[in-house]
Amino acid sequence: MTEEIIRRTTSICPECLQPIPAEIYVDPETNWVMMRKDCEEHGHFKDKLSIDPEEYIWGESFTDEIGSTIGHTTQPESVNSGIKECNEGCPYDCGLCENHKSAPNICLIDITNRCNLTCPICFANASAKGYVVEPTFDQIVQIMEHFRSMKPVPAVMLQISGGEPTVRDDLPDIVRKGKELGFTEVMVTTNGVRFAKSIDFLKQCMDAGMDAIYLQFDSTDDPEVWKKIRGVNLWPLKKRVIENCRKIGFYGTMLVPVIAKGVNDQQVGKIMDYAKDNSDVVSGVIFQPVSLCGRISFEELMDLRYTTSDLKAAINKHTNNAIHRFYPIATTAKMTRLLAWFDDMPEFGMTSHKDCGFATIMIINSKDEWESIEEYFDTEGLIRWSNKVYDMVQGREIPKPTGFLKGVNLEDFGAIANTVGKFIDEMTDLGYRQMMKAYYFAGAVKYVKHPEKILTSKTYQGFARLIASPNLASAANFLHTKNLMISAMHFQDAYNFDLDRVCRCLVHYGVVDPEDNTKTLEVPFCAMNTLHRERLELANAIRGQEAKKAEVIQAEIKELLETVKE
Question: What pTM, to 2 d.p., does this model score?
Answer without folding.
Answer: 0.86
